[in-house]
Input
Amino acid sequence: MAMDDNKDLLIANAERKLLSDILERVSDGIVALDSDWCYTYVNARAARMLQRENAEELIGKHIWTEYPEGVGQPFHQAYLKAYKTQQVIVFEEYYSPWNQWFENRIYPSQDGLTIYFTEITERKNAEEALRRSQKMDMVGKLTSGIAHDFNNILGIILGNLELLEPCVNGGEGGIKRIQTIKDAGLRAAQLIRKLLSFSRQEVAQVSVIEINMLINEMIELISHSLTPNIEVNYDISKNLWSTKIDPGDFKDMLLNLCINARDSMTGHGNITIEAHNINLDEDSSELGLYMTPGQYVELIISDTGAGIENENIEHIFEPFFTTKDQGKGTGMGLAMVYAFVKRSAGDIKCNSEVGVGTSFRIYLPGVKSEKTSNQQHDKQLETVPHGTETILVVDDEKELMILAKDILESLGYRVLTAGDGKEALEQLTRIPEIDLLFSDVVMPGGISGYDLAEQAVANRNDLKVLLTSGNIKNIMPGKNHIRFNANLLHKPYRRSELATKVRSTIDEEK
Output
């Protein structure tokens, strides 16, 4: 009998081990909570998604003590409902503290909850990009129909005004009124031309051209279009690849973006215009939904203006949408920009933070020979600035932190890392030879990049600071934080961008 009991025990242990091995290998995160909301099981996948090194860190811990930012979130409400009603709940939800989407399945019992979850942020972003693209296509088709009809009506109005004008004899007041109507009609006609340009799918006068030539031609016009208090900085690579575009449309786009940047600033400000070559593969985060992997020219227009509210970002390219005061904008400028980029088989991305500024990144397909590619690549490697200083890299996104560390170490720098502001401040206190703090702006834990920079500089006024950000969030820097915006590197950054910005920040005078 004892032998049978022992055999049963061995079988049970083997079955438990097999089940454990299976749970550890599944792609879903799996956790179990008891009736006191404490973790009783966490598989390896769940531990990673819950931002822990291993499952043991959570076993026995109270979920809302470990993740207090989740209290009141839809997840919290769903867990309570599932346990109270003893009903299975399946839902998708955005977790704002981590800026991620999750798909969740909650299975309740009297003893607690078993939760299966997986991160679906990439899928949701792709769905949203497709939805926006379809929406813009629909708006373009609708706009085209309305524009053509309205153009016909305007033609009738303006044509009859021209015929009527000679018939108004000796009435100066009447002639003045006719001219006023004509001027208004001509403005309307100009707006309709913009609408037709927005809805046009084919490029009118395409040619293969280097955009640095077009930018040089625009420098004087851009300068005259801005106020004296706005400084324009140019960082244009000398050997840009050619691209197939309509030169006139490109100039209109550049001027539109510069004027928008001007209007977003009160008093002094800066506009930066950059252009570089970039290779995008299938894994590149910059690759848009309808773009193909390959060679692109990246144009970046950034400003230090007021920024764009998060809820307005998805509407800014729509015709007639404007955040300007009534009468100060038609809402067609960015719609024209969007239409030109899409007609040119490219893509445009907007990163904006309230109180920080806005950056538009435009990707236009490049045209070059393989020989030029190798020569340019070699030249870029030779001209990227190096250094030997000590840099502290701070980023809660581990992969980005490692990437920055690897890049900077390849350039000769000594690199230290920290995963949050608290750890960074400890290292800055302990290691006085740190020359540069390179930190993300948006980080959990109550210490943002701005807060970290302020505290660090207060303790060491010789410390140089470079911040980086790519999240579209409503972040309003305090009055003491504005000074750090002068050195702000937008994500995603390339090796050459990081190298140049780090070197210029270290070398600048305090």
Notes: The chain has a mean pLDDT of 79. The first helix runs from residue 2 to 25. The chain has four domains: 23-119, 124-199, 207-372, 384-507. The longest strand covers residues 269-280.
